[in-house]
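TICKET: design request
STATUS: open
ATTACHED STRUCTURE:
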């Protein structure tokens, strides 16, 4: 006794349940025998009543019945008690402490340890532990301690004993659930009446209505399962917007049928449903159902529940205090002690019905969720809804009309004031229109008046104007859809073979799809329009396995409540799910690599904590037992975020862990009206009557407006300066054209299924596309006449990519190909180009663990080398290490996943200090302080240290930087301590209009309405205004004053004094400028591998090498002075370090808030722990403006051209600097690196040459 419990130890239940069942059977036999005897006495009594002695015999029969009933109950209870004396294994403990182990296994603890119980289903927890020994703050569990399902820990450690009385941390359910006890008593009662009352109708004899035709709930589950197993809804027979090809039914249940949502803690979702196989009536007409039209009705000796979808579900009539579960529909019916009834599922939402006192339908009293928030219903005498009131106290009132003698819903009104939705009908009382708030018609319907489709849908039209039409035919006794078409041009014909079990769809282009149906009316095999086949395997009515076209299988397991318990991909990677009791809340997820995440809930299903795979826990706190929304969230580092909510359950205030407050306000419809940040800046929003955003008024008073067309599509957006962008749309809701603020039009063209066929770029150029029968792209032709052809494998994964270059003058077409391979689960494992073969290695969780490159013979001729990168990850999937040709990196994180330290190949460490939820307050290089930051209430940087300097920043009400100032802090009288200041002004559209700079003077920019740079003027001697022109595709045009011709191929061949040529693929291969000329060579992936020619330093040859991820790792440059080599180290795709042959390194550190904006550079030897630090002052776009040294001295100040080229130092540098400029400062615009071996001002973005 008291042996310490561990993960893997057994839990079990006593045999009281088995005893109860046995007791029920034995008790039932005794009661039956007594009932027969009592029945004989009753018959005799009735026959002798005329003699005056019948009363005595009838009384004796009742006494015998009572006595045998008591004997039966006693027999049942004695057998149950005997069963409770022994235990039977039902599962094991699956989780334990993350850092305390017993005999090498995680120790089990109350509350946090999950158990797997075959008897009760769902995730259960250990509910008890020692009151004297705590692990991770919770009682340590032992043998004999109970679980939440009433079981007990059966086995434990053989040599670790934990004493102390048990301490209970969670409620423990009765081992024999109440409903089973009641069912047992009911069995005895029925058995006792078999003879005495001539027998009673058996419980559960209710016939299932419409059993041959699936309801909307089942169709939704089928589509859901298909999505989970990564196959489309069409594969399981849901097509044609939508039609169930298995049964031939037409149904409607999607977002187009969601008329409005009224937010609250339990939102009102005013959802319509229609199904051709639904014979029921509704306030909307036959076949329709509104969500509130659910009800309970007597049928024979049971009950029928009409679900909100209009489906009918049969239940037996159970006694008070009992419930029953309908497994096909995943619903419980419960009969409460006050004689009311409720129907609910694992979501916890519960429909409550009044007592069944008449044969009339029993209407819902309210809809509730576990915390008690509810929607209350008021009913008219004719069983139509009068009004409902949501948990926010808002009231929706229904209004009705009479059409052809039938009552129909005309509309729903908020507070009887605002019409949320209205409905129109034809003269046969059939629904023909749905009009939303503001008068926009959202749906139109047409109906057949005669023939096989009488009173069935002829057509429906959505808000985009897509008209879908259907043709019906009576087949096998039921009307079924045999044809579909829409006004986008799509057409389908349907064939049904009920004898052979086949269904077929025929498209207007001749393509066909087939479905093979099994005996349970499930899709067993689907043959797609391209001929590929997918097969399906079912178990207990659930789609469990999908056999993909190449034979690979995706597997899943489901419990009886419709919850997935495991999924296994074709590579046998299994993820397991454990659920919290009988709810839809996941309590534990175990991943293929053995890691797990966990969540805990209270008995109302509210989330209490989330624990990641590294045991970092976030906790949630609630003000009372009825509030569903947390008032406080404590993160894994102990920081608190405070939340406030309004009656609608919408967030009104958020106070972060630093005390900064953000506020929100809403209108009665739940639309966000204003938001105010912690600095008091307010953004306001305006909405039209249809609930569409029409204006955004920013904190500075600038106003953006939006205009919507009659179909609810965005028609125009107007910027603060009143320039407008407009759109047109097709019936599929896709853009047809976009007219920008300069009047340039982009046009899109589609096929009948919405695949993009052509894109006109406004410049006379086109992109053209083709597709296979399933909609996968087959080809792309670009404006420069290059093209790409794609091939796909049976699984639908890209297997090859053939690229064709622009034809040569002789008509020859250059081509190159890439091929791809995958593992069984569809993850990329290989890629081959003409230059190299790539292999991808995965860890057990499917993450990329390694990547290798092996050059081909052609690749080796180009200088491509073998390469390998290895990655390591922590249990939560965060990158811990990266090893490549330039060295090894190691990453460390805090509990909030913020990067705290980065260890370089030489052992140096860059570290970050955070406050709050992840705001950087300091950066260090080993023990050297790089910068310390101060921030405002929005956590924006307001100052940073830069050696002896301090840089400050100011912002306007829109959050734009308006001033940047750097001043020395020690001896401001020295020239090198001069203040560097830069002030920014903006246009009404947010573009920089002018900059005042102490080192560069004043710079003025001019733009067109689309924000393209037109003018660049610098107020300094000798500088004239530079102007620019563009074609309609935004290509820069030559500034030669000649009439502008569009660059239909998107290739600039001449600009200023530059002349450029391109290869077949669009890569720049030569540039000429005066005496300088350069030539470039590329690999098969368009990466620059060689440059040669003449530059500022004379003749040169440069070779470039890349790692397996395409990042430049080395360059060698040969000039008249010899050959030099530089290696590059990357953090992701950001340059981290340059490494020279002499061991000198330059390590780059970046702004914590702007990923590609440099903060500092540290120059050091490869193994040194200290270095010389240089600080960057960066522009708005991340480009370095100045570089200063430790004492504040100016070391670099680049003068930028219009497009980022730096040809010289600023006038201010020559005026103020006391040292020569840094010989090497290659960083330019974000992500760009300037190679001094090429033209002054040329830039490389990792490996792509950019012309200035």
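STATUS: resolved
RESOLUTION: sequence designed for all positions
ATTACHED SEQUENCE:
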């Amino acid at each position: 006794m008291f042996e310490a419990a561990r993960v893997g130890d057994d839990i079990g239940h006593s045999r009281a349940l088995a005893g109860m069942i046995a007791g029920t059977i034995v008790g039932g036999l005794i009661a039956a025998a007594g009932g027969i005897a009592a029945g004989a006495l009753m018959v005799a009594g009735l026959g002798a009543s005329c003699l005056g002695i019948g009363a005595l015999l009838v009384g004796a029969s009742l006494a015998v019945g009572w006595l045998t009933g008591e004997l039966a109950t006693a027999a049942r209870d004695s057998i149950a008690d005997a069963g409770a004396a022994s235990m039977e294994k039902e599962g094991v403990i699956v989780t334990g402490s993350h850092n305390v182990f017993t005999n090498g296994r995680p120790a089990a603890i109350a509350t946090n340890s999950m158990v797997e119980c075959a008897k009760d289903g769902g995730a259960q927890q250990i509910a008890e532990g020692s009151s004297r020994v705590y692990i991770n703050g919770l009682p340590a569990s032992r043998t004999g301690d109970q679980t939440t399902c009433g079981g007990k820990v059966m086995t434990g450690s053989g040599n670790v004993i934990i004493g102390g009385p048990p301490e209970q941390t969670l409620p423990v359910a009765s081992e024999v659930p109440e409903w089973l006890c009641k069912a047992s008593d009911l069995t005895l009662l029925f058995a006792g009446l078999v003879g005495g009352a001539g027998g009673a109708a058996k419980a559960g004899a209710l016939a299932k209505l419409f059993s041959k035709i699936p309801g909307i709930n089942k169709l939704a589950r089928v589509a859901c399962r298909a999505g989970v197993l990564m196959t489309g809804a069409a594969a399981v027979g849901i097509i044609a917007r939508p039609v169930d090809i298995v049964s031939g039914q037409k149904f409607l249940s999607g977002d187009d049928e969601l008329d409005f949502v009224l937010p609250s803690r339990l939102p009102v979702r005013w959802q319509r449903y229609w199904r051709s196989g639904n014979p029921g009536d509704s306030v909307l007409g036959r076949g329709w159902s509104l969500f509130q039209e659910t009800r309970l009705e007597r049928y024979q000796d049971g009950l029928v529940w009409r679900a909100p979808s209009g489906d009918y579900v049969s239940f037996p009539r159970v006694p008070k205090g009992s419930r029953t579960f309908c497994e096909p529909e995943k619903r419980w019916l419960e009969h409460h002690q006050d004689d009311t009834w409720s129907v609910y599922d694992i979501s916890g939402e519960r429909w409550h019905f009044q007592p069944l006192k008449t044969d009339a339908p029993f209407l819902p009293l309210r809809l509730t969720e576990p915390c008690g928030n509810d929607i209350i219903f008021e009913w008219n005498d004719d069983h139509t809804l009068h009004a409902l009131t949501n948990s926010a106290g808002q009231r929706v009132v229904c209004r009705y009309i009479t059409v052809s003698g039938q009552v129909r819903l005309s509309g729903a009104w908020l507070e009887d004031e605002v019409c949320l939705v209205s409905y129109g009908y034809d003269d046969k009382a059939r629904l023909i229109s749905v009009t939303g708030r503001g008068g926009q018609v959202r749906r139109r319907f047409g109906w057949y008046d005669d023939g096989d489709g009488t009173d069935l849908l002829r057509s429906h039209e959505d808000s985009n104007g897509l008209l879908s039409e259907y043709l019906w035919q009576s087949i096998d006794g039921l009307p079924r859809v045999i044809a579909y078409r829409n006004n986008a041009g799509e057409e389908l014909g349907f064939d049904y073979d009920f004898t052979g079990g086949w269904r077929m769809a025929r498209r207007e282009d001749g393509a066909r799809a087939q479905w093979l149906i099994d005996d349970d009316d499930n899709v067993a095999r689907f043959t797609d329009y391209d001929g590929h086949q997918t097969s399906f395997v079912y178990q207990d009515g659930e789609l469990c396995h999908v056999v993909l076209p190449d034979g690979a299988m995706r597997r899943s397991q489901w419990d009886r409540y419709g919850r997935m318990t495991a999924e296994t991909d074709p590579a046998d990677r299994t993820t397991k799910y454990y659920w919290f009791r009988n709810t839809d809340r996941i309590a534990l997820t175990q991943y293929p690599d053995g890691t797990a995440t966990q969540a805990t809930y209270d008995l109302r299903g509210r989330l209490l904590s989330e624990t990641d795979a590294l045991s970092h826990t976030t906790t949630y706190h609630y003000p009372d037992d009825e509030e569903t929304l947390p008032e406080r969230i404590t993160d894994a580092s102990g920081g608190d975020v405070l939340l406030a909510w309004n009656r609608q359950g919408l967030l009104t205030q958020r106070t972060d862990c630093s005390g900064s407050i953000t506020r929100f306000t809403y209108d009665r419809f739940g639309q966000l009206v204003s938001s105010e940040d912690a600095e008091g800046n307010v953004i306001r929003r305006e909405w039209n009557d249809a609930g569409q955003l029409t204006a955004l008024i920013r904190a500075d008073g600038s106003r953006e407006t939006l205009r919507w067309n009659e179909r609810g599509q965005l028609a125009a957006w107007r910027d603060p300066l009143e320039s407008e962008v407009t759109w047109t749309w097709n019936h599929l809701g896709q853009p047809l054209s976009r007219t920008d603020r300069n009047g340039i039009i982009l046009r899109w063209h589609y096929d009948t299924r919405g695949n993009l066929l052509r894109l006109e770029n406004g410049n006379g150029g086109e992109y053209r596309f083709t597709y296979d029968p399933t909609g996968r792209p087959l080809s792309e032709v670009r404006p420069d006449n290059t093209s790409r052809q794609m091939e796909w494998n049976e699984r639908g994964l890209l297997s090859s990519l053939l690229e064709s270059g622009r034809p040569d003058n002789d008509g020859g077409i250059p081509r190159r190909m890439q091929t791809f391979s995958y593992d069984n689960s569809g993850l990329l494992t290989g890629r081959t180009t003409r230059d190299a073969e790539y292999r991808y290695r995965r860890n057990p969780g499917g993450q990329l663990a390694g990547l290798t490159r092996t050059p081909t013979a052609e690749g080796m001729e180009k200088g491509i080398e073998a390469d390998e990168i290895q990655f390591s990850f922590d249990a939560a999937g965060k990158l811990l290490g990266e090893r490549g040709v330039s060295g090894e990196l190691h990453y460390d994180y805090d509990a909030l996943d913020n990067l705290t330290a980065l260890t370089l190949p030489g052992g140096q460490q860059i570290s970050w200090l955070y406050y709050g939820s992840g705001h950087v307050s300091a950066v260090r290089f080993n023990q050297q302080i790089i910068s310390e930051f101060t921030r405002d209430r929005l956590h924006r940087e307001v100052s940073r240290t830069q050696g002896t300097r301090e840089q400050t920043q100011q912002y306007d009400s829109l959050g734009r930087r308006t001033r940047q100032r750097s001043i020395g802090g020690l001896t401001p009288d020295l020239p090198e301590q001069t203040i560097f200041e830069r002030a920014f002004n903006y246009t009404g559209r947010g573009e920089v209009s002018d900059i005042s700079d102490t080192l560069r003077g004043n710079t003025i920019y001019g733009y067109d309405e689309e924000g393209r740079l037109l003018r660049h003027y610098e107020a300094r001697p000798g500088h004239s205004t530079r102007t620019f022109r563009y074609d309609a595709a935004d290509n820069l045009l030559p500034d030669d004053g000649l009439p502008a011709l569009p660059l239909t191929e998107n290739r600039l061949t001449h600009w200023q004094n530059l002349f450029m040529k391109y290869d077949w693929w669009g890569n720049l291969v030569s540039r000429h400028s005066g005496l300088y000329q350069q030539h470039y060579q590329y690999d098969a992936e368009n990466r620059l591998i060689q440059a040669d020619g003449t530059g500022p330093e004379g003749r040169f040859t440069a070779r470039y090498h890349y790692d397996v991820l395409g990042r430049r790792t080395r360059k060698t440059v040969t000039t008249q002075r010899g050959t030099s080599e530089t290696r590059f180290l990357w953090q992701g795709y950001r340059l981290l370090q340059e490494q020279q042959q002499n061991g000198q390194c330059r390590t780059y550190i970046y702004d914590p808030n702007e990923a590609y904006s440099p903060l500092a550079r540290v120059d050091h030897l490869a193994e040194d722990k200290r270095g010389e630090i240089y600080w960057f002052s960066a522009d708005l776009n991340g480009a370095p403006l100045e570089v200063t040294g430790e004492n504040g001295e100016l070391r670099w100040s680049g003068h930028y051209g219009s497009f980022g080229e730096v040809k010289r130092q600023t006038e201010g540098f020559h005026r103020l600097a006391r040292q020569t400029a840094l010989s090497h400062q290659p960083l330019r615009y974000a992500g760009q690196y300037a190679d001094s071996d090429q033209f002054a001002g040329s830039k490389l973005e990792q490996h792509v040459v950019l012309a200035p």
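CLOSING REMARK: The chain is about 10% helix and 45% strand. Residues 16-47 form the longest helix (32 residues).
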